[in-house]
Amino acid sequence: MRSSTLPLISRLGCTTATFGRRLPEKLQAMKQAGFMATEFFPRDLFEDPRGPDYCVDMVRDSGLAISAYQALRDYEGMPVKQRDHVLGIAEQMMDQMAWLGAELLVLCANIHPEASPDRPRCVADLRRLAELAQSRGMRIAYEPIGWARWFSDYREAWRLVQEVNHPCMGLALDSLHVAAHGLPLDGLDAIDPDKVFLVQLCDWPQTRLPPFEIARHYRLFPGEGVGPIKAFFDYFQRMGYRGVYSVEIMNDHYQQDDPLAVARRAVSATLGLAAAESSLTERAN
């Protein structure tokens, strides 16, 4: 494995969904806390009555990069009519991305009950989307999510991306979706780091709630729950991942807190992962 030498602070991002309040306060909090990028959602672009141009200007003025645009859904393996409908949505989202200066679109693994497990069909659908992205100077990050119909296991999603075999198709790997379902982490060793387009970090509490509820309402900051987040993070550091680490914390409680306090806590928790890694390295030497 190759080790990444890029400083972590220069690769930290956070989703707008982590915060409550309006977009200007979210952007200001992330920038002031030390984040360099944010994941953006269509609702962020259209939430202000002054229009999307105003939101685009806010992003540009903030100095934050757009690490990813979230999220296209229910695409691969769908009946042709529905697949083509979602492909049209992808084109609209790419228009919005061009407006924002974003280049990475997240595609969540299909959860729709009509999704087919037919592998050649899914590969062809993903390749078609990747070719669309390439024509726009963009990329697709395929995210295996825990309740996906056929590709919830990140190892299976990686095999699918390998079969697509397109430079604009890679993976988005979220610590919750990779590790909260009891999947072993050692499968990360087999993944080409150049095909990991985004890594998302969060932790989670000890609970009997279903994963969907945890993901949408009860995520915790890295290192503050029961997940193997340090081990997850270390895999990407050792493999030489050079992209953004995006903190993605959907938690109803944090939505009520001051955005700057939330952003500072998120930065501190994430940098703590790197500090622990450095401490272990120094002791080993």
Features:
285 residues, disordered C terminus, 10 helices, 14% strand, eight-stranded parallel beta barrel, 8 strands, TIM Barrel, alpha/beta, 44% helix, globular
In short:
By secondary structure, this protein is of the alpha/beta class. The chain has helices at 23-33, 42-46, 52-62, 80-100, 119-135, 154-164, 175-179, 211-217, 229-239, 259-284; strands at residues 12-15, 37-40, 65-72, 104-108, 139-143, 169-174, 196-201, 245-247.
Task: Give an overview of the whole structure.
The protein is built from ten helices and eight strands. With 285 residues, the chain is an alpha/beta fold. The protein has a single domain, classed as Divalent-metal-dependent TIM barrel enzymes (TIM Barrel, Alpha-Beta Barrel), CATH 3.20.20. α4 (80-100) links the parallel β3 (65-72) and β4 (104-108). The longest helix has 26 residues, at 259-284.
